[in-house]
Design a protein that fits this description.
Blueprint lengths: L5 H13 L4 H8 L3 H18 L3 H26 L9 H10 L6 H8 L3 H8 L5 H19 L6 H10 L6 H10 L39 E11 L2 E10 L4 E8 L4 H15 L6 E4 L3 H4 L1 H9 L3 E4 L9 H13 L9 H16 L13 H8 L1
Parallel strand pairs: 1-4, 4-5
Antiparallel strand pairs: 1-2, 2-3
Length: 376
């Protein structure tokens, strides 16, 4: 039986690993069996796995890991600071470099941002300018108002809020500070609405014809129903809105979308407002608004019923806009665990924020309550 030295075996294995040729080709050249060379190669791999990496391999792996950490830190730094590029504001770039905790030296950070190391250290040793100090104070006010608005105010409403507090500031400066500090108002999402118009009840004519303007309160009311998902199931919300001020004059919630829900909201509106005769009450063609009890309540208070055209969502657009506001600023931001929890939050939002505090761009950035008070 032919024997082979260890040196011969190592050379054969090296040829397999480095020559780029197949095991069969190398075995034929060396005059050995294909299976024999395959066994040597397999045994060599097993020994390598058991003995672990060689010193050179371990060093190379450590170097590559360190290099990957640096590349990852650079990537994260550039990703988070992308907003600063193109603005030409070196002070903000220097501040960003100084705040970041990435495992990078100052020189590397400065190179990534295209600024000098000497410029960075000159900035770091420089006292804040008067405008920078003013920005810090202004930002504190902005953060406070942003929190009070449930994080819903963008720069236009924020400017009005600050100016009424006696702070003389322009919209561009407020927008810059909000943008640079991540104070972004929540965006509205799509709104899905359902109306049960397949019923045999009488339908009132459309008296508004998409004219939502009014000369004063309690001339035109709009009503509608929407729904909120909770862990216990759906909670339905009915509202009555004064179209002059967008004030929610009556509201009610229920776990069922029956006529009593709409009736309760209307009864509350009539009890609180005690309007004179002649109001136009506009709604969609839902069965709740076409019921005999609802029509009788309107008639008893000498209120004229008006209803949207069939399938025309624009005929009740103002009330739907109010629902969009409620959902984007309150409902969509919370996973409600119970209907009771949602009901309490809705009440606090409507009576504690929407009506008395929230600024509406359509009302000259006044709240509904203030708009009505100034119109009186």
């Amino acid at each position: 039986m032919r024997t082979f030295t260890d040196e011969f075996k190592r050379e054969a294995i090296r040829l397999v690993q480095t020559s780029g040729r197949t095991i069969g080709q190398i075995a034929d050249d060396l005059g050995i069996g294909h299976s024999t060379l395959g066994k040597w190669l397999a045994k060599h791999r097993d020994v390598a796995l058991l003995s672990g990496p060689h010193e050179d391999t371990a060093k190379e792996l450590a170097r590559l890991r360190k290099e990957n950490e640096i590349l990852r830190a650079e990537r994260d730094l550039l990703k988070k600071a992308a907003a600063f590029f193109g603005q030409g504001n070196k002070s903000m770039i220097f501040r960003h470099i100084d705040e970041k905790k990435a495992d990078l030296c100052i020189a590397r950070k400065c190179a990534l941002f295209g600024v000098s190391v000497s410029g960075f250290y000159a900035w770091k040793g420089r006292k804040p300018s008067r405008r920078q100090l003013d920005d810090m104070v202004l930002l504190a006010h902005i953060r406070s108002q942003f929190s009070l608005s449930h994080e819903t105010y963008g720069s236009p409403r924020m400017v009005v809020e600050l100016q009424e507090d006696g702070i003389d500031v322009g919209r561009h400066r407020v927008a810059r500070l909000m943008r640079d500090n991540g104070l972004k108002a929540l965006q509205k999402r799509g709104f899905k609405k359902t109306t049960d118009s397949d019923h045999g009840g009488p339908v009132a004519p459309n008296m508004l014809d998409q004219d939502f303007t009014a000369d004063g309160p309690d001339q035109k009311w709009g009503a509608d129903i929407s729904y909120i998902w909770t862990a216990e199931g759906w909670l339905y919300l009915a509202i009555v809105v004064d179209l002059f001020s967008r004030r929610i004059v009556g509201w009610a919630t229920s776990d069922r979308m029956k006529k009593d829900l709409a009736l309760t909201a209307l009864k509350r509106a009539l009890a609180i407002r005690q309007p004179a005769a002649g109001i136009i009450h506009h709604s969609d063609r839902g069965s709740q608004y076409c019921s005999g009890d609802y029509r009788k309540l309107l008639a008893d208070h000498k209120t004229f019923a008006s209803m949207s055209g069939k399938g025309n969502c624009y005929d009740n657009a103002m009330v739907e806009t109010v629902f969009k506001t409620i959902k984007s600023e309150l409902i969509w931001r919370t996973a409600w665990q119970s209907r009771r929890q949602a009901d309490i939050a809705i009440g606090r939002y409507i009576d504690g924020f929407y009506n008395p505090v929230r600024r509406h761009s359509a009302l000259g950035y006044k709240s509904p309550c203030r708009f009505e008070a100034e119109a009186a």
